[in-house]
Amino acid sequence: MLQQVPDRTPHSERTDSSCSLVFLASASILIGIATGTICGTFRLFLEWLEFTRTEMAPRFLHGSPWGGFFLVVGVALAALAAVEMVRRLAPLAAGSGIPHVEAVLSGITGPASWPLIPVKFVGGLLAIESGLALGREGPSVQMGAAVADAIARRLSLGRADCRALLAAGAGAGLATAFNAPAAGAVFVLEELVGQFEARMVCAALGASISAIMFSRGILGSQPDFIASYPVLPTAVAKQLFFVMTGLMTGLLAVGYNRTILAALRLADRLPVSIYTRATLIGGLAGLVVWLDPHLAGGGDWITQAAISNTINWHLIPLLFVFRLVFGAVSYAAATPGGLFAPMLALGALSGLACSFVAQILSPDTALATAPFVIVGMASMFAGSVRSPVTGIILVMEMTGSSDLVLPLLCGSFSAMVVAGACGDTPIYEALRLRAAVGRR
């Protein structure tokens, strides 16, 4: 049983109307500005380091006979340093961070202390850009929540308003991570708190909007991925191909969730310390970077390649299995890092495979590849996280594909149904339950 812990929010005796809506909105804007600045800078550093890994590392490897050795050792030490920081300074910074935020909002545990922010920032940079298959959204969401908690406490707000602002800060972190303001706000309402209450909506919108306004000053306003495709056929029969994509991807999402949890259970049973484990996994990531730096990291390169249809069809199964296993092993390192970006890359590969199947089944109809890839991304999110509206809006904002609403709905609905029929637990709920018994 999950035990309720004493509420750590100041002035918790106040009522839900502890401050006016205008004051709450102003506080959410302040939180959004702080979160957008911190998480925007975090993402900017990630982009710089990714360029170094993908463009500069190959030159270093070709220029030195010892280059590969130093690369593997360097990545292993980076993973070790990330875990050392987490264990010594902020244990709650391990892993994604989203399950912890959900636990705080549910009253199961208390919010993290301020050292989490620099630990998540630096540890996330070390882990993600050393090559581990981890995403940027987990650190951004948890840092946003920590920023919001610190500001709300300074303002001496009541429990309900502190909770609303903490959730809003988390949503602002997601919005900044993917340049997706609407998805950040909906993530708060659908996944984190599960309610559409006026004050919560106000706080979520205020934080996400202001975060994006400031982060775009750092990062620019272009969508994360470039997607172009002709107008889709409107026939009902053609929409069934997207239902097929959702069904297939939903099954793969169940496999993804179970692989993540199996990797964590296996890591618990290994007769080595967490430091040795992180070093070994870091060394594995170094080998991947050595072989092909584009296959390491969060997976954005793979997602864009799938959207652009530049991956040979016979490589899709091999690449999917590799990224599935590598992502699960990377998460077991217990470094800061999220699941969204690797998850979306797997969904993109699933959608790409389904596009080839559709072409075989309907050779007389010109079916573009990109819509299948985009639907696969949203379907993987819906099947794994079980927050379909967030997934649909997130993918639309990341790809600029607002005209794919019906295919996205078909795919996400199908993925939700098949994942539920398999009796699978949503990934963040499963991780939260795991953390409740003392594991990460």
Describe, in plain words, how this protein is organized in 3D.
This protein has 440 residues and is mainly α. The chain folds into two domains: 21-219, Clc chloride channel (Orthogonal Bundle); 236-436, Clc chloride channel (Orthogonal Bundle). It has 17 helices and no strands. It has helices spanning 21-63, 67-89, 98-105, 116-129, 137-154, 159-178, 181-192, 198-219, 236-269, 274-291, 300-307, 316-331, 340-361, 369-385, 388-399, 405-421, 427-436. The chain is globular, with a radius of gyration of 21 Å.
Core attributes:
Clc chloride channel, globular, single chain, 17 helices, disordered N terminus, 0% strand, mainly alpha, 440 residues
Topology readout:
Blueprint: H1 21-63, H2 67-89, H3 98-105, H4 116-129, H5 137-154, H6 159-178, H7 181-192, H8 198-219, H9 236-269, H10 274-291, H11 300-307, H12 316-331, H13 340-361, H14 369-385, H15 388-399, H16 405-421, H17 427-436
Helix pairs in contact: 1-4, 1-5, 1-6, 1-8, 2-4, 2-10, 3-17, 4-5, 5-6, 6-7, 6-8, 7-8, 7-15, 9-12, 9-13, 9-14, 9-16, 11-13, 12-13, 13-14, 14-15, 14-16, 15-16
